[in-house]
Fold this protein.
Amino acid sequence: MFDYQELKSKAPQALRQIIRGGQYKAHTAGLAKGYLQANLMILPQAHALDFMRFCQRNPKPCPLIAVSDTGNPFLETAGVDIDIRSDVPAYAIYRDGMLAGESHDIGSLWTDEMVTFALGCSFTFEHALLEVGIDVWHITNNTTVPMFKTSIETVPAGAFSGETVVSMRMIPEERVEEVYGICRQFPLAHGAPLHAGDPAAIGVRDLLRPDWGDMAPSLPGCVPVFWACGVTPQVAIKAARLPLSIAHKPGHMLVTDIPDGAEIPIMKP
């Protein structure tokens, strides 16, 4: 098995090969500097158009960066030799809208009817924050970013609906506006935050009890800042109650070959 610190210098293709080989199964925050990471949603073709509409109507939590051909497990527009069945550290398996388990390989679940959607991830802009001296606690402490379901409703599409999910980072109060400016440069990674300050204003009750990820402590002189999160579709999947759908385990992302500053995320294999 590879150590997390060991992987920080690895290029995307090398990282994916390590993950495909089962040699790393943990979170991907802080890895693949300079490249987009992606949230995943894999579902039957019959529901793909409605899900694409859901992403189009909710671009902050669901910035669409790649879509596979039906039945093709290779996500060719996101990078070289990406096999979506094995190149993610951990997957979340949903049956009838409920989380039924996790896996590190979904080859046995793949069918010719499946379509993969890749959505940009906030892990991408964290490198820019680190470069200007803004500490990202979960990277420094090798944990998974805390994520919370909010009271902010998404715009429905077909069977897909539900609340927006956010990720949270503690930011020095005097640098919050700077963070907004930095993150606006990464629209494919959720862009600027949705909210800063009082968690209750967006329906988050307890920062010490995230719905996904690990708890991050309150820090002196810092305020909680919240970004739209690509786990939002996993809430929408619960509402849709599809017989089978597959997502990434929150925090365990697909590393792509798409540069983090790309405006049109199309790669040639």
Notes: The two ends are 28 Å apart (CA to CA). The domain at 10-122+240-259 is CATH 3.40.1640.10 (PSTPO5379-like).
